[in-house]
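ARCHIVE CARD
CATEGORY: sequence design from structure
SOURCE FIELD: tokenized fold
FIELD CONTENT:
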């Protein structure tokens, strides 16, 4: 009878450990640009898995509306108005996060981004600087600022929302592609440099996803067909198909995964030209 009880306790303990590997309960997260598109989906995904989430948006009305909706769903989400392209506002955002989460941060999701698509020779200096500041400089600086908080958590995870344009050539614009290629390399460098601090770093690289950033382009049926023809799965993706991977990379179950750039692209980046028609 003693053996039976011991076995039961052991099974319960094993079940508990297995469950905790697939939960973010008790963890804290910062998700930039969390009121729309992929960022919104990431906030919902992390909060549903038990994390307390802080997010930001340039638009106060959007942020207020989302916070009310998330509260009605029982999610623990707070927020700050912040334009991540502005250094002083990034400083203030991390101060807010540190205050909200008592100096510890489990997860940083660098999601906020922008784009201007045009031929390379037509970019103005202002456009170049704006895209670089929003996509690259902000993510790099937020990692710097968040490092002490991530280290203090004991097991930190950084996830960059990159793009397949940082992996292969697509028609999204050279400047945007340059920021995403740089983010992919930062991912690898930080994974090695900050492993000693028990901070993992990964990137997800989406192809065309149904978000406000590309909705106008996808309304062009000819353009949409070109995207579909290049994609073995014959469709564009949904924000939730990206956020699920982001969440997985933050879970304890992913504790040995770091320095990776994982495409979420319906097979586009491995398409050698065989799948170009229905």
């Amino acid at each position: 009878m003693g053996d039976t009880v011991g076995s039961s306790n052991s099974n319960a303990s094993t079940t508990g450990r297995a469950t905790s590997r697939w939960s973010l309960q008790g963890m804290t997260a910062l998700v930039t640009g969390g009121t729309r598109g992929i960022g919104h989906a990431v906030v919902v995904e992390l909060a549903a898995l038990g994390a307390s989430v802080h997010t930001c948006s340039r638009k106060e009305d959007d942020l207020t509306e989302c916070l009310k909706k998330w509260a009605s769903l029982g999610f623990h989400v707070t927020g700050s108005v912040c334009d991540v392209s502005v250094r002083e506002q990034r400083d203030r955002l991390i101060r807010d996060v540190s205050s909200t989460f008592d100096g510890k941060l489990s997860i940083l999701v660098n999601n906020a981004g922008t784009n201007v698509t045009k031929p390379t020779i037509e970019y103005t200096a202002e456009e170049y600087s704006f895209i670089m500041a929003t996509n690259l400089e902000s993510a790099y600086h937020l990692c710097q600022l968040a490092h002490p908080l991530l280290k203090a958590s004991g097991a930190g995870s950084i996830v960059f929302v990159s793009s397949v344009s940082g992996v292969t050539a697509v028609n999204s614009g050279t400047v945007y592609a340059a920021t995403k290629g740089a983010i992919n390399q930062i991912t690898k460098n930080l994974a090695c440099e900050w492993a000693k601090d028990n901070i993992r770093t990964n990137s997800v690289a989406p192809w065309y996803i149904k978000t406000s950033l590309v909705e106008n382009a996808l309304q062009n049926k000819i353009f949409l067909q070109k995207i579909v023809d290049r994609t073995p799965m014959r469709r564009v993706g949904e924000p939730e198909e990206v956020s699920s991977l982001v969440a997985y990379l933050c879970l304890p179950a992913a504790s040995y995964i770091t320095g990776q750039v994982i495409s979420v692209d319906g097979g586009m980046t491995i398409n050698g030209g065989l799948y170009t028609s229905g």
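CARD ANNOTATION: The CA atoms of residues 131 and 155 lie 31 Å apart. The two ends are 63 Å apart (CA to CA).
SHELF: design records, drawer C
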